[in-house]
Amino acid sequence: MTTDHTAVRIAAPEGIAAPALRDQFGRSIEYLRISVTDRCNFRCVYCMPLEGLDWLPKSDILSYEEIADVVRQLAPLGLRRLRITGGEPTIRPQLDTLIGMLKAVPGVDDIALSTNGVKLPAMASLLAGAGLDRVNLSADSLRPDRIKAIARRDLGFDPVAALKAAVAAGLDPVKFNVVVMRGINDDEIGDFARLTLEHAVHVRFIELMPVGEMAGLTWDHVVPSDEVLSRASETIGALDPSDGPRLGNGPATYYRAAGAPGTIGVITPMSHTYCGTCNRVRLTADGRLRTCLYGDHEVNLRDPLRAGASLVPLFVQALANKPKEHQLLQMQVGGLKALSQVGG
Ligand code: SAM
Ligand code: SF4
User: For the chain, is the Cβ count within 10 Å smaller at the N or the C terminus?
Assistant: First the structure.
């Protein structure tokens, strides 16, 4: 493990966001994904076992004040964009309070939410009012019986109602995340693609990743993104490369059908890795900083935070050790049992 502190801290003039730190491979790190809970009201087949996981004790989970403190300490190092995730973040009470606290941190200019969307119709306006900028909704099917089968809970989730609530609340952009599984929901690729002709929604098809027990899913269920794109264009016509949504410098590659208000994106952790442009790190619900979604590269920030120590040297060192790429194709995911443990 290298301890070469190649990450450099540069002070920015007041009122101007600090330039982001770079890791040892020159990647600029400006994006923090914050998991606020490891629990969820769904049990998606590819994510969480039916019986749940060994939940974190409440005392291990960072309070909202502690999360805000982490962000206050790290924003001067160039973190500008935050995503609230989980587990399912909307089941943690008073999420709007956290969003308001984070929005008030100097340097933070964008806050996004990843959610399964169940509670979005009831919460979208409240969250937008607190400072939420945009939302990613996980929606693997548009059919109620199938949503129930994939989520293994019947909570009446209606993806299009959630989309409309998000748009009405002024959240922009609104993205759909669709995990494509052969023989389970791949026959809906065209239906999702058609949504982009009617709504300003960015539908992102994600390749299934082999993490955790996955309820019997195997490599045979993975649908490569090239196939997804060709099947989408069979329904809505030729797809041209597109810039995608504002602030779309994440892992997706975007396309648009002629005249469509929305776009289609593909996220390809399996068939084409995007580690070379990775701009993110993750904070788990119990305060561990993970510099890669997979593997065991993590640093405990919670205990130093609770002891009153500065997190800056730990963050700088963690970035210096951020791995070059994941080892998913070699099936190396470290101790990870489900993406819900690290926020996806
Ligand atoms: N509960 C929220 C949600 O579902 O959006 C946020 C957390 S969830 C872990 C974040 C993302 O990870 C979701 O879009 C979900 O579809 C994705 N995900 C979870 N397990 C996955 C897997 N095995 N393969 C691909 N994507 C996965
Ligand atoms: Fe919950 Fe999201 Fe995992 Fe589904 S993908 S079980 S909604 S955390």
Answer: N
* Strands 28-29 and 21-22, bridge-based pairing: antiparallel
Helix axes 159-168, 120-130, angle to 10 degrees: 20
> What are the structural domains, with CATH classification, of the chain?
31-341 (3.20.20.70)
- 265 φ, ψ to 5°? -125, 155
CA distances from 80 to 36, 51, 63, 109, 344 (A): 18, 37, 21, 6, 19
- Does the Cβ of 138 fall within 6 Å of ligand 2? yes
Give the pLDDT confidence of 229-244 residue by residue, as tens digits. Answer: 999 999 999 999 988 7
Model confidence pLDDT, tens digit, residues 271-302: 666 676 777 889 999 999 998 776 667 899 99
For residues 42 and 116, is the Cβ–Cβ distance under 8 A? yes
Ligand nearest to the CA of 139: 1
Closest CA to 25 of 329, 253, 250, 275: 275
Q: Could you say which ligand is closest to the alpha carbon of residue 40?
A: 2
Which amino acid is residue 202, in one-letter code? H
Instruction: Answer whether 0.85 is exceeded by the pTM.
Output: yes
